[in-house]
Model the fold of this input.
Amino acid sequence: QVQLVESGGGLVQAGDSLKLSCAASGRTFNTYAMGWFRQAPGKEREFVGGISRSGGSTLYANSVKGRFTIARDNAKNTVYLQMNSLKPGDTAVYYCAADRSLRGSVGSTTSAYDYWGQGTQVTVSS
Done:
């Protein structure tokens, strides 16, 4: 089992950048594909992006493609979400998640992930 702790959220203005981090416990971090999701009030949790176990493959939601970048450092057991050109519509609680399945592709649904962090709030003002 892995425990995930997100950090880096906050209040920013439209157009600003923010970098989220997700630190994982345990020695098997490189066996998990990782994903970022977000949930705005009254809305379902939605996929933001994901990264393969090695970091060689990434997948993004259309709404963030070209603005957000996911990276991981397996030596530090950490996955990052760099968010640029933030919009008010990006306001949500952001969650990182770990997929233990060893599937060959990056999952984009909540059901593809087995472990979740507690979330970090990102608020973008206009």
